[in-house]
Amino acid sequence: xxxxxxxxxxxxxxxxxxxxxxxxxxxxxxxxxxxxxxxxxxxxxxxxxxxxxxxxxxxxxxxxxxxxxxxxxxxxxxxxxxxxxxxxxxxxxxxxxxxxxxxxxxxxxxxxxxxxxxxxxxxxxxxxxxxxxxxxxxxx
Length: 140
Fold this sequence. Notes:
The protein is mainly alpha-helical. The chain is 53% helix and 0% strand. The chain has helices at residues 2-8, 12-20, 27-37, 41-45, 67-90, 106-116, 127-133. The mean pLDDT is 85.
């Protein structure tokens, strides 16, 4: 946020207040922020995103990850869900054979999916190909 404040000429505390939702930027400031960040203004004016729950996200090495990296990855996941919803409205995608397991822990979701697809415990040679075969490009 300090870097964004420096690039836009806005006080760091003000940027922090915008991020925390304490107050909204004026239209001119919102345009400046959008320009600096390289996103259309409409991106910032849309409804809040549903952020994935931290306990529903799996990272390979949390000990090597900063809180900023973790939060950024989770936020990127929220944007990915938004993108997926848009793709579903714009294109006729195949029906997904991936059950919705967002409420499960990563471990129970993995075991449940293996059971759902009848994979047993054998290794998966190519996860991308498996997901393509099972409609993984179109998650619920």
